[in-house]
Amino acid sequence: MEHTYQYSWIIPFIPLPVPILLGVGLLLFPTATKNLRRMWTFLSIFLLSIVMIFSLYLSIQQIFLSCIHQNVWSWTINNEFSFEFGYFIDPLTSIMLILITTVGILVLIYSDNYMSHDQGYLRFFAYMGFFNTSMLGLVTSSNLIQVYFFWELVGMCSYLLIGFWFTRPIAANACQKAFVTNRVGDFGLLLGILGLYWITGSFEFQDLFEIFNNLILNNRVNLLFLTLCAFLLFVGPIAKSAQFPLHVWLPDAMEGPTPISALIHAATMVAAGIFLVARLLPLFIVIPSIMYIISLIGIITVLLGATLALAQKDIKRGLAYSTMSQLGYMILALGMGSYRSALFHLITHAYSKALLFLGSGSIIHSMEAIVGYSPDKSQNMILMGGLTKHVPITKMAFLIGTLSLCGIPPLACFWSKDEILNDSLLFSPIFAIIACSTAGLTAFYMFRIYLLTFEGHLNTYFLNYSGKKSSSFYSLSLWGKEEEKKLNKNFGLVPLLTMNNTKRASFFCNKTYKISNNVRNQIFITVENFGLNTRTFYYPHESDNTILFPMLILVLFTLFIGAIGIPFNQEGIDFDILSKLFTPSINLLHKNSQNFVDWYEFLRNATFSVSIAFFGIFIAYCLYKPFYSSLLNLTLLNSFQKWNSKRIRWEKLINFVYNWSYNRGYIDAFFKTSLIESIRRLAKQTTFFDKQIIDGIINGVGITSFFVGEVIKYIGGSRISSYLFLYLSYVFIFLMILFFFYFEKF
Amino acid sequence: MNDFPWLTIIVAFPISAGSLMLFLPHRGNKVNKWYTICICILELLLTTYAFCYNFKMDDPLIQLSEDYKWINFFDFYWRMGIDGLSIGTILLTGFITTLATLAAFPVTRDSRLFHFLMLSMYSGQIGLFSSRDLLLFFIMWELELIPVYLLLSMWGGKKRLYSATKFILYTAGSSIFLLIGVLGISLYGSNEPTLNLELLANQSYPVTLEILFYIGFLIAFAVKLPIIPLHTWLPDTHGEAHYSTCMLLAGILLKMGAYGLVRINMELLPHAHSMFSPWLMVVGTIQIIYAALTSLGQRNLKKRIAYSSVSHMGFIIIGISSITDPGLNGAILQIISHGFIGAALFFLAGTSYDRIRLVYLDEMGGMAISIPKIFTMFTILSMASLALPGMSGFIAELIVFFGIITSQKYFLISKIFIIFVMAIGMILTPIYLLSMLRQMFYGYKLINVKNFSFFDSGPRELFLSISILLPIIGIGIYPDFVLSLASDKVESILSNYFYG
Questions:
Q1: Strand (E) or helix (H) holding A603
Q2: Of A266, A709, B382, B419, which is most buried with the most CB atoms under 10 A?
Q3: Residue A659: which H helix or E strand, with range?
Q4: Nearest to B254 by CA among B199, B316, B333
Q5: Residue A73: which residues within 8 A CB-CB, separation 6 or more?
Q6: Structure confidence by residue, pLDDT tens digits, B340-388
């Protein structure tokens, strides 16, 4: 057994050969590398499976014999400083390893088909392999410098993958935004690491915790400085896990390919922030104020993410905000000190959200054939609807993911979310109220997404039929009639976008889609008639098995992963795998009730949270029940609205929420006007200063000396008259001065 | 121990071989090109061989030393010798110059003179890094200027005369201060002028005098390094020069300033240095932020990269002025690392300019489709420049940060403040580099160039960029390559500060 641990340093290096070989191959022997094509995929899947088996083995051992393994090698040796690299295996690491590898393998299988028509197929797999390597390195790292090392590498992979389709200007902006925002987090993280080093003199986790606790106990360090350092450390996770002030990059990151959104921006990389907070929890837990800050930021993000998700039109953006909200739950749980439930939610959410994203990718893939290769169209939920008939398996998978995220009992997220809600009740009633109401909101927006996508009729064609009738807009708008104008713009474009033949051709022909994507506006004018004349209706088709298979596996995970946190009654002792894993870890709220689960209380809380979720689903059902099939329910809707006696105020509220969500809570706009503009202005001013003043002085000196030289040259041009003139004028000036002095004396 | 005059041969070989080029048959540029390349490679091999077999890593003293009397009249010696501080820069010089000659392949106009100048620059630089005599140092310093001036004024861009004049005025002006310092130091104390650096290192001066000397040297090196506000020659020069010259300028010439700062200001004038270092640190911090912001405001691609190197020089200043073991090690590592990264970035900027013939960033766009390999290399090297872990820039900057943290000299508050501001620079760096990438490569744009024929980088360019990239990643993954060269020397320099 010791053998296994000895070799676990190899974990991050196993997937590494693929990106290295691919990178070298693509640069030096592009044709040969491209001919191998799918071999690379198989190789990367194979290597990742090895890691998965390895990490499964490790975590099984962790369950039975919970212990921490650490081994370090020196990286740089110097008298004054030394950095070390090593691995650190504990239950947290093993869980993260399993999570990364399972989701990673499924996403790799999925993207083999999803990206198969893309020019950058191999580039994609190179990036993915590198991401897997750095993510595995991050979770196995044994000290803070190593964490920082991989933390940035992961961020870079995210940058490259968001900007994967670099011809899109939006993607170009999004990837830069993501990198810079993450760099702000890294800034905090680095400062925090340095500050902690200054306090404790160590980077190793265990030494750090020990020294830190001693210092706190003996009260030998300035608490304010400590809190500052801890907070700066926490800034890193804020950016990486898209928490409140630095969440702006996550929705934009959806410009990347969908498998990436599933792997990086839902399941693994954004969970790195949670991982780091969990890892450093022994450090945070001794400073109550920082715990309070963590939970505060968590609760703000929970609410913000949920409200912003309410009116997104883009299916992936909606899911992204929901990810943000769920990450907020985890941070909240960590801030409350319930380590176990946070990680439980991390696991369940990762699988559910990966399922949802893969499902949405499948939908997008189907829709692209109809509406064209443009994220504005293929991801737009307004154009979807009624997909149940066409993509039944995807629908089933998506529904299960949705239900799981809403917290419906047998599914994964129910168990973990319920725990978090319980703990929040113990922690603070205000937080509990917000968290519970957000659970309702979650159910609402998830079902909104589901209903808009799968229920009713395919809106693309519907819009075509009714393109000239303005009356039918009402039933289609997302938030009732007040949105008419906003959507009109979109509708004007819709008929033009269904030029099936051209679009399909451009989608399948790899070389040209980028051009057609970008020169779209010019094409519209010329091809419009052609498109309208030859229109034949295509319906979205179910995706290939390669896409469906990972989704089905994830469905299984979503169904059964909750089991690891369910207490089994075994020989009189309550026993669940997760608790077994985390027994030696800290658990603030459950100190005395570790082995005692009150079934009655559990049932009561569960009923409460489930009823909230059903309430949210019910409202979503009322509001978004598709127009045709909901004629019967219209009375219900009416009564629901009548019940709200002040209907105008209600509409105002809806309008406000819609605007809030549509404008992303005005936070992006705020950042844009305040930060970006000010940096630009500052840059302009500095450039001006540099050019006009610093450089101007130099040039001025040069020009002055030039002129002085010219004047002297002119004067010294060996002309007697000028010499005489100069001589006489100086004499004259001298006389004048003398004269004045002479007069003043009198 | 070893009397063979390795260093003299290494210094004299390129320039003498270069002057032989005049006797080559005048049969086109090809002969000159290949001849120069061969000389450079031979020189690099010779250097490596000499250092491999004759240099002891664990010896902080001067090695391979040579001492020949040159001018009897005022005790002027041809003194050569290397130690841990200079070996890294000499190897860097050899490497970058070889690659720069390779990069200069497309130069056709007056290629004989061009290559001769490259080779004489080679000699001058190695001579500077290996001289152990103050006056020899000065002579090599001046010898360096002439080739750069000619290279600038003959093979530059449109405004080449302006920038060449600016360069020569700036550097010649600063050389006056260097000369004053050299003469002042050598004539102090005794009737016989002492120019030997080893003897001078143990000398102590009255405080005022030491401060005066320090200021003189500082001005000279501040122009070269550059330190704000004496930096304005750099963007102009880099903006106009041919990219092979740019590689030499960014890769080596700037490092001469840093080297001089360590070699003379730190080693010879320790008291004044510890007096000045807080101010230098403040200046370095301001420089990081200031140059980063200015870089963000530049429209010209090469100028943007030039300002980014000004910004990175701030880390060297801070490392040197932190007077700690990690800080100084970090500064030396940053010298080497930026030598590679800066040279590579200028090379790539030059090659993409060769294709697109556009200077301003806002006119470019969407080049990634037509030149994917350059795009890849540009992305990787921008990442290296913004200190991505795994690349050499990261470890250098991290160690500099570390140096400030462990510094005993400063108060906590000031340390926090300086680190905070430096870290803000860490946020600004990706903004300007990534927006540069975005403006150049991302998006889609039909470029209205008359002869629209883009070739992706050929084998020569690919070889060049990869061979610069390899040491960057190598140092980033295993920094002890470079750190072990200089660590003993660093300790011996710093021992002056703790016991003196």
A1: helix A599-624
A2: A266
A3: helix A647-662
A4: B316
A5: A84, A85, A86
A6: 999 999 999 999 888 888 888 888 877 888 888 899 999 999 999 998 9
| Chain-chain contact of A187 with B293 (C-beta, under 8 angstroms) | no
- pTM for the complete prediction? 0.87
Q: Is residue B204 part of a domain?
A: no
Residue located via tokens 């979770």: A139
- Res B453 pLDDT > 70: no
Q: Cβ(B10)–Cβ(B47) under 8 Å? A: yes
- Percent share of chain A, pLDDT over 90: 19
When pLDDT is cut at 50, 70 and 90, the band that residue A189 belongs to is very high
| Cβ B280 vs Cβ B268: under 8 Å | no
User: Quick check: B443 and A683 CB within 8 A?
Assistant: no
At position A524, the amino acid (one-letter code) is: F
Q: What are the pLDDT digits (tens) for A461-503?
A: 655 543 333 333 333 333 333 333 333 333 333 333 333 333 3
Residues of chain A with C-beta less than 8 angstroms from the C-beta of B426: 183, 186-187, 190
Residue entry with tokens 């993958």:
A161
Torsion on CA atoms A75, A77, A81, A86, rounded to nearest 10: 30
Tell whether B262 is covered by a domain.
no
Q: Do B296 and A145 touch (CB under 8 A)?
A: no
Q: Model confidence over A632-667: pLDDT tens digits?
A: 455 555 555 555 555 677 778 777 877 777 777 788
The shortest C-alpha distance from B443 to chain A (Å) reads 4
Dist CA A635 CA A701 (whole Å): 85
Name every chain A residue with its beta carbon within 8 A of the beta carbon of B232: 690, 694-695, 698
Is A149 in contact with A103 (CB distance < 8 Å)? no
Angle at A325 between CA A320 and CA A331, to 5 degrees: 125
| Largest separation between any pair of C-alpha atoms in chain B | 72
Inter-chain CB proximity B419 and A191 less than 8 Å: yes
Choose between B120 and A514: higher pLDDT: B120
In a domain, B183, yes or no: no
Q: What is the pLDDT of residue A170?
A: 87
Tell me whether residues B438 and A694 touch, CB distance under 8 A: no
**pLDDT of res. A706:** 87
Provide the residue type at B456 as one letter. D
d(CA A151, CA A207): 21
Q: Please report residues of A whose CB lies closer than 8 A to that of B368.
A: 166-167
Regarding an ipTM greater than 0.85, the answer is yes
pLDDT in tens, B267-298: 888 889 989 999 999 999 999 999 999 999 88
User: Count of domains in chain B?
Assistant: 1
Among B167, B290, B296, most A C-beta atoms within 10 A, so best to mutate, is B296
Angle at B408 (CA atoms; ends B405, B409), nearest 5 degrees:
110
The DSSP annotation for A169-192 comes to HHHHHHHHHHHHHHHHHHHHHHHH
> What Å distances lie between residue B488 and A78, A153, B87, B271, B437, CA to CA?
10, 32, 13, 21, 40
Q: What percent of chain B has pLDDT over 70?
A: 97
pLDDT (average), residues B127-152:
90
Question: Is B190 domain-assigned?
Answer: no
What is the rounded CA–CA span in Å between residue B78 and residue A730?
Answer: 54
A-chain residues near B493 (CB < 8 A): none
- Residue B410's alpha-carbon distances to B278, B283, B320, B323, B407, in angstroms, are 8, 15, 14, 10, 7
* A192-195: Cβ within 8 A, 24+ apart: A192/A229, A192/A230, A192/A231, A192/A232, A192/A233, A192/A234, A192/A235, A192/A236, A193/A144, A193/A145, A193/A148, A193/A233, A194/B401, A194/B402, A194/B405, A194/B419, A195/A225, A195/A228, A195/A229, A195/A232, A195/B416
* Partner-chain contact A166 B442, CB within 8 Å: yes
B444 and A514 in contact by Cβ < 8 A? yes
What separation, in Å, do the N-terminal and C-terminal C-alpha atoms of chain B show? Answer: 31
Question: How distant is the Cα of A117 from the closest Cα of chain B, in angstroms?
Answer: 17
